[in-house]
């Protein structure tokens, strides 16, 4: 992450901690300081101990340093209302309402606290796990099994055919919105094999010239979306209705409602629109 404010790390200060920047989650919602007079941006709670604000931390993990302060993820005890002047806000709702850099770190923090919460005991032998000091890992005190944070890769692809783009629609999408073919990587697959398989399974279309575009962590709860472009290489469009509500070719001059700017799908589409049809 290009940043002057944040430095990732696992440092655990031994002395009593000074002020800490907290990414503290109540369920899936982040504890944030409400905007002051005239402002519209949320900010982080800064405190040596969140108990000073009247909420209690169930468990916490170091994230690094933010603006020279220690920075931690935390899980809050359930049920306590947000302190006066603060609110619990979901990550999706926070987008655009908090500094973009803090939003990115919040995604990391969410994944770390999710991993911390889900890995208290060894899946192999049931003994307690302890947190590694030098790397992000939990180790079984009895059988030495390791548990790293789980990151699940998925591919997403923009398939073009001259001035047309292949777009798909899932039933849960907002009315009128279409996205791009996406799917999880299976064991043994390369990312490119996954792209070709997903496109063929979902739409019956074959693709060629699969080219990496970029990637995006997607902390809902622990994916990384790996984006590609590809060219139509044959096949009749037929929709796999078990996965999709619809799939269509759209002309670049007549696109449907697009995915939100937050998404890599939108960035793929905008990058395609920005270059001439080929
Ligand atoms: Zn074990």
UniProtKB/TrEMBL annotation:
InterPro entries on file: NAD-cap_RNA_hydrolase_NudC, NADH_PPase-like_N, NudC-like_C, Nudix_hydrolase, NUDIX_hydrolase-like_dom_sf, NUDIX_hydrolase_CS, NUDIX_hydrolase_dom
EC number of the protein: 3.6.1.22
Catalytic reaction(s) noted: a 5'-end NAD(+)-phospho-ribonucleoside in mRNA + H2O = a 5'-end phospho-adenosine-phospho-ribonucleoside in mRNA + beta-nicotinamide D-ribonucleotide + 2 H(+)
GO molecular function, one term: metal ion binding
Top-level class of the enzyme under EC nomenclature: hydrolase
GO BP of this protein: NAD+ catabolic process; NADP+ catabolic process
SUPFAM superfamilies referenced in this protein's UniProt entry, alphabetically: Nudix
Family: Belongs to the Nudix hydrolase family. NudC subfamily.
Entry protein name: NAD(+) diphosphatase
